Amino acid sequence: MNQQGSRGKVFLIGAGPGDPDLLTVKAARVLAGCDVVLYDRLVSAEILRLAHPDAELIYVGKHEGEQQRVQRRIFDLLLQHARAGKIVVRLKGGDPLVFGRGAEEWAVARENGIDIELVPGVTSAISAPGLAGIPLTYREISQSFAVITGHCKEGLAQNWADYAHIDTLVILMGVKNRAYIAQALIDAGRASDEPAAFVERATSEKQRVVITTLREIANGRVAAENPAVFVVGHVVRVRERLVEAMEAVEVF
Ligand code: SAH
Question: Were 182 and a residue from 5, 80, 177, 218 both cysteine, which residue would form a disulfide, CB within 3.0 to 4.6 Å?
């Protein structure tokens, strides 16, 4: 029997960008009453402290090269604990359905007759730029944005030309391939002096904002560390009107 005295269930919960204050009220309520938490690398310690004091906390973060094995373990743990009648929280950074493989876990639970409920989270794709003073849309500057994965394996490159005409590009998991991505966007027709930014470790004490251009990134002159949201577009300039320029590192 679980903390709530009912049958097993999985809650697929978005933990937001890191700051516990950006968790939804529902996420905090479910965490406080759960039996097991399966959490990813980007989930902060402060958020884990909101789980029921007796809850079992299981780290299931993935590192490169072992994704498949870890994903199978996650499916097994979800099913095992839910079948044992537990309230299981599957906690993912940001929103669980934005590059989080959350939908695959949802499908596996359903295929196995396990009750599952989604609790959406605040995605870093929108909140990290926003908190840095970069709105993804702005009247007369940006009427559209796209959220893209930058985790493109060499030789298996995305067609960056497809995104050339979208006003604002938000690239997740794009730190490692940043020079390649910036060059691909320039080759696809975006101006080399187009503003770009990295927002690193959004909402944490170590948050750092880098303001630069596609050209500097393509030339390998911009240092950036994971996790960071990579934003390309003229909305990056709106920041000057919203926050102090001094708060960012500028590379031009
Ligand atoms: N589901 C998550 C995204 C998972 S992909 C969401 O909705 O936010 C992981 C990528 O998200 C990282 O490589 C980085 O690009 C971004 N990211 C997540 N948390 C972040 C944070 N606190 N600050 C900056 N980028 C973050």
Answer: 218
